[in-house]
């Protein structure tokens, strides 16, 4: 996060008045993961992703920038990436991007 903080500071110093949109990391789904992806998802868990997202949100607030979280349509009841939206447990299929398209576009059109 300190590197992230430094990068944001440098951008703000070089581009006065810039608006930065900092987006939440997408959730993952261990149960929908391929065997090749499961070892990675033992490390990249939704618990860690949620903590990272909290830190990104705090960083955005610290800098007076925008935090975007469009994950709700992607998540199942357990807070995992819906299995129908994932290729192998982590990466998102086109259907998943379609599910969040309107939410993302709301920020693009601001």
Compile the SSE list and pairings:
Layout: H1 2-14, E1 21-23, H2 38-43, H3 46-63, E2 66-68, H4 94-108
Parallel strand pairs: 1-2
What does this structure look like?
The protein has 110 residues and is mainly alpha-helical. The protein has one domain (21-108): 3-Layer(aba) Sandwich (Rossmann fold), CATH 3.40.50. It has 4 helices and 2 strands. A two-stranded parallel ribbon has the order 1-2. The protein is globular.
Summarize the entry for a quick read.
By secondary structure, the protein is mainly α. 47% of the residues lie in helices and 5% in strands.
Give descriptors for this structure.
single chain, 110 residues, mainly alpha, Rossmann fold, two-stranded parallel ribbon, globular
The third-level CATH topology is: Rossmann fold
Our count of helices gives: 4
Return the string of H and E elements.
Answer: HEHHEH
Structural shape: globular
Largest sheet entry = 2 strands, parallel
Strand content: 5-15%
CATH class label? Alpha Beta
Roughly what is the average pLDDT, rounded to an integer? 96
CATH superfamily membership, which one?
SGNH hydrolase
**Helix/strand structural class:** mainly alpha
Query: What portion of residues is helical?
Result: 40-55%
Overall number of structural domains: 1
The end-to-end span amounts to 27 Å
Report the radius of gyration as a whole number of Å: 16 Å
List the uncertain runs: none
Number of strands: 2
| Largest beta sheet: strand ordering | 1-2
Query: What oligomeric state best describes the polypeptide chains here?
Result: single chain
Known CATH architecture: 3-Layer(aba) Sandwich
């Amino acid at each position: 996060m300190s590197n992230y903080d430094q990068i944001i500071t440098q951008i703000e110093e070089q581009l006065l008045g810039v608006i930065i949109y900092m987006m939440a990391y997408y959730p993952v789904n261990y149960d929908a993961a391929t065997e090749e992806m499961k070892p990675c998802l033992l490390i990249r868990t939704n618990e860690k992703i949620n903590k990272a997202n909290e830190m990104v949100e705090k960083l955005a607030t610290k800098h007076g920038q925008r935090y975007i979280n469009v994950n709700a349509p992607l998540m199942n009841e357990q807070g995992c990436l819906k299995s129908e939206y994932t290729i192998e447990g982590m990466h998102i299929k086109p259907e998943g991007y379609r599910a969040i398209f309107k939410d993302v576009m709301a920020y693009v059109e601001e």
